[in-house]
Amino acid sequence: xxxxxxxxxxxxxxxxTRVEPNKFIEYxxxxxxxxxxxxxxxxxxxxxxxxxxxxxTFDAEHENPEEVQRLGWQAILDNFKKxxxxx
Length: 87
Hints:
Elements: E1 14-20, E2 24-29, E3 39-48, E4 51-58, H1 66-86
Antiparallel strand pairs: 1-2, 2-3, 3-4
């Protein structure tokens, strides 16, 4: 992943551990030592009157404050929303 202005970037890889089409995705980010099993992420897609509500939860890493991480994940979701609405 990389910022559009190229100010920062990082590798982002993992493995899907559970997928329920149109409902739920779970995966493990492989950015921690192998013995920890990685960080878990889950994404819920819930139908609401306005469309689809996406709720994402993740195991925080230990290098950056949780609030910074939350803002980063929210920015990803905001960009995803813009992409979907433009399609």
